[in-house]
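Recap from last week: sequence in, structure out.
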Amino acid sequence: MMIHEITIKVGRHRKAKRVGRGIGSGSGKTCGRGHKGAGSRAGATGSIRASREGGQMPFFRRIPKRGFSNARYKKHFAVVNVKALQSRFEDGAQVNAGELVRVGLIPDMKLPVKVLGEGELTKKLSVMAAAFSKMAMEKIAGAGGSAQLQSDGAGGA
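Predicted structure tokens:
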């Protein structure tokens, strides 16, 4: 017998523990929260971070800060694969950021669009985006379409 077979027989969901129902219940008075401290207070579950160290100097502040991080200069894109273009657009369609928002492939036009080459493309599409992967350009051109880079790099159409 395997563990997943046991849970089917016994039941998947356990009843919630009823706390604060008297000392005879085993979870009365402090209701399993102990005495004093932030853990005993209402709302403490959302306010105590995993990195909280009490009064001790936090780890991140103890270690020296050296070197350079490129994280603030990273370019962020709204990513679309060619297989999504294949399924959402008709043959000969003009594809730009506005159209991608309309069909639901990207949430909004705040980020520039990058087209990646995952999947197959058989439809002839005219795609306008801020960036293309090498594979995506090959697949769009191979299907008879065109891949045009936007000059400003913004997501807008």
